[in-house]
Amino acid sequence: MAMKLHWSPKSPYVRKVMVCAHELNLLERLELVRSVAAMLKPNERLMVDNPLSKIPTLVLEDGFALFDSAVICEYLNDLAGGSLFPTQPADKWQALRWHAFGDGLLDALILWRNEREREVPLTALVNAFELKTRACLRQLDDEAQALTETPFSIGHIALGCSLGYLDYRFDGLRWRESAPRLADWLTELAKRPSFQQTEPVNG
Ligand SMILES: N[C@@H](CCC(=O)N[C@@H](CS)C(=O)NCC(=O)O)C(=O)O
Buried b / exposed e across 53-83, counting CB within 10 Å, b at 16+? Predict the structure, then answer.
């Protein structure tokens, strides 16, 4: 029996889980259930497993449902005995910090996208999201060498998925011009099969 993953090919949070599953060789243990999660339209079928109506949600073989993406990724890593969540303090806190950094950037980008799609976006809010995003990119550009030199972890996965989402939904931002070292790091990361096989689909 497989574990059921509420999934979408476009969600960057789901992508984190899928990258982990690829890296940990757990793909065949997952049954992907296409679930539409939209802030304005809670999905009743999804809410049976996750009352927050969010994806990813992972339903284990005994029916226990795990969320959010951070919890699911750590669960998969434990299940496979992987090293995506380092345990030695020096690597652990950096990995968890980058994980939170990537998720935090994603949270801002999702809210920014929602706001800009409203009929009358709140300019101050849109400007604040852009300011924070550009500050994150500057900071991460300064950390590109550390990212390259640190063993691959959940931190790299979260940041890679956030930057992939920038490419997917924020083409006009041209972020690579202002963060060239980070762009080079992402180019290398994107060569991993786990990233290539989870690229968000257009539409
Ligand atoms: N913190 C959550 C965020 C998940 C999330 O917001 N997913 C989006 C799809 S990309 C969603 O389900 N949105 C529906 C909603 O917010 O109602 C995680 O890391 O899993």
Answer: bbbbbbbeeeeeebbbbbebbbbbbeebebb
- Check pocket membership of 198 for ligand 1, CB cut-off 6 A: no
| Other beta carbons less than 10 A from residue 35's beta carbon | 22
Question: From residue 125, how far is each of 53, 152, 162, 169 by CA, in Å?
Answer: 25, 34, 20, 18
CA atoms within 13 A on the CB side of 121: 14
**Is ligand 1 within 6 A of the CB of residue 56?**
yes
- Average confidence score pLDDT of the chain: 96
Q: pTM, whole model, 2 decimals?
A: 0.97
Distance 2 CA to ligand 1 centre (A): 23
Q: Is the Cβ atom of 154 under 6 angstroms away from ligand 1?
A: no
Cβ of 68 closer than 6 Å to ligand 1, yes or no, is: yes
Q: List, for residues 119-177, the tens digit of each pLDDT value.
A: 999 999 999 999 999 999 999 999 999 999 999 999 999 999 999 999 999 998 999 99
